[in-house]
Write a structure and sequence with these properties.
The complex is a heterodimer of chains A (259) and B (438). In chain A, the strands form two sheets. Chain A has a four-stranded parallel beta sheet. Chain A has a four-stranded parallel beta sheet with strand order 6-5-7-8, sandwiched between helices. The radius of gyration of chain A is 18 Å and the shape is globular. Chain A contains eleven helices and eight strands. In chain A, helix 3 packs across helix 11, helix 8 runs parallel beside helix 11 and helix 9 packs across helix 10. Chain A starts with 5 loop residues before the first helix and ends with a helix. With 438 residues, chain B is mainly α. Helix content of chain B is 60%, strand content 0%. Chain B is elongated, with a radius of gyration of 28 Å. In chain B, 38% of the residues are buried. Classes of the chains: A alpha/beta (259), B mainly alpha (438).
Amino acid sequence: MIVPTMAEMMAQGKQPEVLFWVGAAGSYDDKAKKISRAFVKILNQAKVDFAVLGIEESSTGDAAKRAGNEFLFQMQALMNIEILNGYGVKTIVTCDPHSFNTLKNEYPSLGGKYEVFHHTQYIQKLISENRLQINDATLKGKRLTFHDPCYLGRANDEYESPREIIRKLGANLTEMKRHKSTALCCGAGGAQMFKDAEKGDKEVNILRTEDALETNPQIIATGCPYCKTMMADGVKFKEKETEIVVKDIAELIAEANNL
Amino acid sequence: MHYLPNILFALALAIGFGFFAMNVRKLLRNIRLGKDINRSDNKSARFKNMLKIAFGQTKMVRRPISGLLHLVVYIGFIIINIEVLEIVIDGLFGTHRLFQGVLGTDFYGFLIGTFEVLAVLVLLAVFVFWTRRNVVKLKRFLSAEMKGWPKNDGNIILYFEVVLMTLFLTMNASDVPFQEAGIGNVISQIIAPIFDGFSTETLHKIERTAWWFHILGILVFLNYLYYSKHLHILLAFPNTYFANLNPKGQFTNLEAVTKEVKLMMDPTADPYATPIESTDNQVPEKFGASDVADLSWVQLLNAYTCTECGRCTSSCPANLTGKKLSPRKIMMDTRDRLEEVGKNIDANDGVFKDDGKQLLNDYITPEELWACTSCNACVEECPVNIDPLSIIVDMRRYLVMEQSAAPQPLNMMMTNIENNGAPWQYNQQDRLNWVNEE
């Protein structure tokens, strides 16, 4: 798999059409790395001229900001903005709704103004520009439910792009009783991913998994590396991991298109 | 002494509105204790929001049962107020049903008929509301923060409405000329037979009594607002007007922090320079919020607007899984503390005297704050665009930046971000390894 970096591109005097912001999860977390690779395969199939920052990429600061550490967030932001602006980046795509939200909404007033896409939006764009076709044979008729990531859905009002793709995949989408703007969080946001939950009677991801199980799915699809982990853990807790797979939309497309 | 009723009426109005004006001044004073933020931009979008969400109740009907019942009470409240205008004019000038002559009997009859039907619908809606709170016991009305005054407050408002509507219908039913005319008495004609056999004089007394209690009741209710969650009937409008227009995921970037971070990262800045002595003894800006005065005036307006419906709490993932966090409690605590600060200022000649208390710890505990997933469900659900999440984040900022009091695992996460640019402890040089791991 060839993933060019911005530094290499610059050395060759080239400017890619889009920067793929991988994010910390997409770079280091085993479940999320699969999403990154699937997305790169899709970009390659659509012949998108892209690059990553590689070792020059650093945390967007989302988790730090949500934890209350505005200092650390702004340090990360200013550092990243310096690098992004240095490379003349105009367009960014990311598989992480948290990075998407931070880059799109919180960087501009600090000097980082880019056109930012969530990967489901970008894939949708590639399809509408006829640069990407989706094969609907593999997932045809499969029972699928979609878990809306909070930072894509409520935070940025994007509910349709992932659903359009699911329809193109030919899967049989059954919505959970809480979906779109009423979707329940997976429990990872607001820096919860990195700490233990406060005392309560249940873990949030278990409650959300129960929502999903009510739809009797074969596939739980999502569009966020943290949601994927939380839902996969929930499915495992319910001992359903042999019957139900938890996958990102990008992975489903890569699978459908045999990439 | 012919004018005595008119004078008494004018006096009652003056006292009622005077006392209300006094409380409104206090309310505005308290809201202005908050930090200034600019919400004077985008007037047309703000106005549209207010029309749609407050006036049009679009977010209320997301939950159809309570939403539609609320719509009935709301329309009843607005429409029946036309009648109150007539009562006020009649009371001041000693006229009786002045609008009948002005509007013509037919149209007047149609109006009063509509009011009467609405009054019955309001009574029905109020009955269902009362049942939901006291018999069916909906979960969101049973939370810990709903014990005592908040529970009583909810019921008192319903009783008020029952009394006012009953007085209105009684007033019409015992109005002999009105019943004899037989126009617009759609409901009151059903009640009128109760008074069969009463002398005209007695009926007149009943009518006058109902009339007086109806308008006095309204004046008392008006003054009850300041002490009640019912304040939302007024504040829902400014609250939706001044609400956040940015995407819900966008948190504010603290400007004071930007200044310091830019200075820190400026390669030309002299690291050994002594800070420039400021002449006006400036107190360094506090990061985040530990008390109500650290919040913005919009957040304080939010607190006064909250009607404690609990839609936020019933959709909060933390609350649904048994954690202590309840977004509604965040708003109620903020209002309670703000009231306390306001009373403190009143008692100390207009200056706040330190009472050794603050919003953090004395009202809202760190345990509640750390349970939030920042998922925005509470913000999305609020029928009047209150933003509990912004208060939670501001208080986390205080805990972390002023007190270094984050939970230990979060401190580790933040150290990792500082050291290797990721929340986990991985080597920055390995950031691209995922490419070759198939």
